[in-house]
Amino acid sequence: MAVIGSLRLRSVELAWVAFATGNLVAMALAPSWETIPFHFIWISLTLVYGFRVWQPEPTGVVLGLVILATGSLILLDAFNGEQLWGELFEVPLMSAMFMAMVWHARRRQDAVQRLQREVSERAALLQQQKRFLHDVSHELRTPVTIARGHLEVLQRLNGRPTQEIDVALDELGRIEQILERLLLLAKSKQPDFVVAAEIDVEHFLEDVFLRWSEVVLRGWRLGELVPGTLRADPEALRIALDALIENAVKCTEPSDSITIGCRAVGGWLAIEVADEGVGIPPEALEHIFDRFARADSARSRAQGGAGLGLAIVDAIARAHGGSCTAANSADGAVFTLRFPVFVRGRVERSLRAPASAASDAVA
């Protein structure tokens, strides 16, 4: 009863105790056939342990009782001449095999428990980071909005352009952009981060191209456009493209060209933004999509930004099951967005959703 209490036996353990007891009785009643119930006891013990993986102390108690019970019966029969003395070696052999299985099972259980703890700790840490990012971003919005309002009032009352006020408003605008991007990244792992819809790719990219070409002086080129329908979030796709084009604008001069195009690769769509700018340093290619990474730390603050734009592009691509890559070309740099679920073919005009209905580009 002490063993039963220490093991906290449940139905499986109780069934095994009954099975083992029956086999011990069979060993005692049929000495010439006792090796069969003997092996039944050990095999069933191994199976039960594989399901339960008891703690070391009860495991040792059960193992000791099985060794004592089975070994005693075989030893008694050997003395009586009903069993060969060599059969006694079965007891330590089966014990060793069982202990080897126990060792592997304990190692696996410990590894699983460690992994579960690490997963829980990382999940908690990620949740804390997201909450912190969200709270800080929201807390900073209020003073930024108040400061911007006072500066705009002061600018109107002053009646003439003031460089100091313009600089302050520009810096506040940068802070607002950083906050918006931080909030977007904080939501990037949530299930509802993207809401997929049918997008007419040709019309969508034409709209993005026209919107940027009207506000920024560059040698804009509209490359090859593959007609078809992409299953993606229109707003998220626009944000990703704006971030890539913004990056191309920062790395080019007014006389340089920026090309936007797309191509079909099987059931995937590859959207490319190529520029004739300074390119990407080779050492920066591996971490260019990391948060707060900047391809050129020597850039001025006005050009470099906070290093969040490309991280947002990567997060959006991954949320769609796609990817984003960067490479240098003979003229500059090429960024490629890859999205699955693309159906090639002309789209009826009535089905086209205007991309220009989205908000302004991410700056």
Highlighted features:
alpha+beta, five-stranded mixed β-sheet, three-stranded antiparallel β-sheet, 56% helix, 363 residues
Describe the protein's architecture and organization.
The protein has helices at residues 2-7, 11-29, 35-52, 56-79, 90-158, 163-186, 201-213, 234-250, 301-304, 309-319, and strands at 197-200, 219-222, 228-232, 257-265, 268-275, 323-328, 333-339, 342-344. α8 packs antiparallel against α10 (309-319). The protein is an alpha+beta fold. The termini are far apart. Strands 2-4-5-7-6 form a five-stranded mixed sheet, with helices on one face. A three-stranded antiparallel sheet has the order 1-3-8.
Helical content, roughly? 55-70%
Outline the low-pLDDT stretches: 1-7, 295-306, 350-363
Overall shape: it is elongated
Radius of gyration in whole Å, from Cα? Answer: 35 Å
Note the topology.
Layout lengths: L1 H6 L3 H19 L5 H18 L3 H24 L10 H69 L4 H24 L10 E4 H13 L5 E4 L5 E5 L1 H17 L6 E9 L2 E8 L25 H4 L4 H11 L3 E6 L4 E7 L2 E3 L19
Parallel strand pairs: 2-4
Antiparallel strand pairs: 1-3, 3-8, 4-5, 5-7, 6-7
Helix pairs in contact: 2-3, 3-5, 5-6, 8-10
